[in-house]
Write a structure and sequence with these properties.
Blueprint lengths: L6 E5 L5 E2 L15 E5 H10 L31 H6 L9 E6 L5 H11 L5 E5 L4 H11 L6 E5 L3 H11 L3 E5 L16 H18 L3 E6 L11 H5 L2 E6 L6 E9 L7 E7 L2 E5 L3 H4 L10 E8 L2 E13 L7 E4 L3 H15 L6 E7 L11 H13 L7 E3 L2 E2 L5 E2 L4 H10 L4 E5 L12 E5 L2 H8 L4
Helix pairs in contact: 1-6, 3-4
Length: 458
């Protein structure tokens, strides 16, 4: 009599295990995410994620001081911004996951790498397009492509022997959701298949030293599709952000075992592919005529890169009795806090007025250093007074109305001076070196002092 195979239920969002089906995952709280998988498949995935050899031989431990890292050179991908995002290039044997919405430019970026990296022998595995479709896209993107080999296959047992025989400098898999392995008895794209495929590709990358780039889709909530353990398996997670109808894309580092996770790279989608934007401030600073109220330029820091962008605010009388608060690219709760500070500490009555806030360029800002620019934009719109176009702001606003200093003020001042700004407002408690002669640093201690220094003519 045949025995029923033992199965487990686990969450497709966070990977939490359960012996039975549940409508809501007790770990992450998501509904209807429990899927069933055989125990054998799950155990195989756990073994595949290890660092051991395929023949079962174990690696001997090494003293930390005896490990030589000088033999691990970085591999340049031919794209300066991507190399900087990865921490100086691609580490041999690493597993990189690039996620993003459909049509955002993941496949374009992954194909641009072998087309523009001279001498980088690349195996491009595609499970979504035919060879003819890849060739058509390559002709549009330009580049030689002499060292790029295209392999249209979705079965991992056929891909890995080909990669071992070719031993490329780089392997790109587009996408991980289309791949499957015979070790798991389920359809391609299922949670168990994604886990096992990623685990086997990780083992191949570590044993062969060939870096592997995986392309992954994201869910409607903006998370990479598949189990959360997929992000734990890989070494680097990069995510594409931006509106598909717009021209600009942001590639952000979510996880990086070999570099900083606070970096981003900006690209512009053109007819010939993605163009690197070396100075993102060029597209974020004001692009309109002077004399418009409700705008202020903020100096923020994303990783080690200072960015200047425009903060736009609109203050008007409440049309429906109840004042509205709306913020695009900024935390609405923090906007409410700043408005409460303006009312309590500076005497501005904005409780009967609608306040709309927008971060220009589609940015999502979390740096508290843009508080000062938000306050100035709101006051500028409230007074209908245009701020000078050569003035920028950086500083955090506290609940007592004080303006607090922010980190790396020197870099922010230097970037503002380089872009031609003549004046920058900072906290009076900030410490910095001698600023460039072309810019004047104005120190303000609190909101009333800021109003007196900036709006005395209003």
């Amino acid at each position: 009599m045949a025995t029923k195979a033992k199965t487990l239920w686990y969450c497709s969002s966070c990977g939490n295990e359960s012996p039975k089906w549940m409508g809501r995952c007790p770990a992450c709280g998501e509904w209807n995410t429990m899927v069933e998988a055989p125990v054998e498949a799950k155990a195989s995935a756990g073994r595949g994620a290890g660092r051991g050899s395929r023949d079962g031989s174990a690696h001997k431990p090494s003293r930390l001081r005896d490990i030589d890292r000088s033999r691990e050179p970085r591999i340049s991908l031919g794209l300066t911004e991507v190399d900087r995002l990865l921490g100086g290039g691609l580490v041999p044997g690493s597993l990189v996951l690039i996620g993003g919405e459909p049509g955002i430019g993941k496949s374009t970026l992954s194909l641009q790498i072998p087309l523009h990296a001279q001498g980088l022998k690349t195996l491009y595995v595609t499970g979504e397009e035919s060879e003819r479709q890849v060739k058509m896209r390559a002709d549009r993107l330009g580049g030689s492509g002499e060292d790029c080999v295209v392999f249209c296959e979705t079965r991992l047992e056929a891909i890995l022997p080909e990669a071992e025989q070719m031993h490329p400098d780089l392997m790109i898999v587009d996408s991980v959701q289309t791949m499957f392995t015979d070790a798991v008895d389920s359809t391609a794209g299922s949670v168990s298949q994604i886990k096992e495929v990623a685990a086997q590709l990780l083992r191949f990358a570590k044993e062969s030293g060939v870096p592997v780039i995986l392309i992954g889709h994201i869910t409607k909530d903006g998370f990479i599709a598949g189990p959360k353990i997929l992000e734990h398996i890989v070494d680097v997670v990069l995510q594409f952000e931006g509106e598909t109808r717009g021209a600009y894309r942001v590639l952000r580092s979510i996880k990086n075992r070999f570099g900083s996770t606070s970096e981003l790279a900006v690209f512009e989608m053109t007819g010939t592919g993605l163009r690197e934007v070396a100075n993102p401030s060029e597209m974020l600073i004001p692009m309109h005529e002077q004399g418009l109220s409700g705008t202020a330029v903020s100096v923020t820091l994303d990783g080690t890169r200072p960015l200047l962008f425009e903060v736009q605010a609109l203050v008007s009388s409440a049309a429906y009795g109840t004042a509205q608060r709306s913020a695009t690219g900024f935390d609405t709760r923090r906007l409410n806090m700043l408005l409460a500070v303006l009312e309590k500490r500076a005497g501005f009555h904005l409780n009967a007025k609608d306040v709309f806030l927008n971060m220009a360029g589609g940015l999502k800002v979390g740096d508290p250093a843009c508080d000062l620019a938000v306050v100035c934009a709101v006051l500028s719109s409230n007074f209908d007074y245009a701020l000078p176009s050569d003035v920028c702001f950086t500083g955090e606003v506290g609940l007592s109305g004080e303006i607090r200093p922010v980190s790396q003020t020197d870099r922010r001042i230097a970037e503002a001076a380089r872009l031609g700004f003549k004046q920058i407002f900072v906290s009076s408690f900030s410490s910095f070196d001698t600023p460039p002669a072309s810019i004047r640093v104005v120190k303000v201690a609190d909101i009333p002092g800021l109003v007196r220094a900036l709006f005395r003519k209003a």
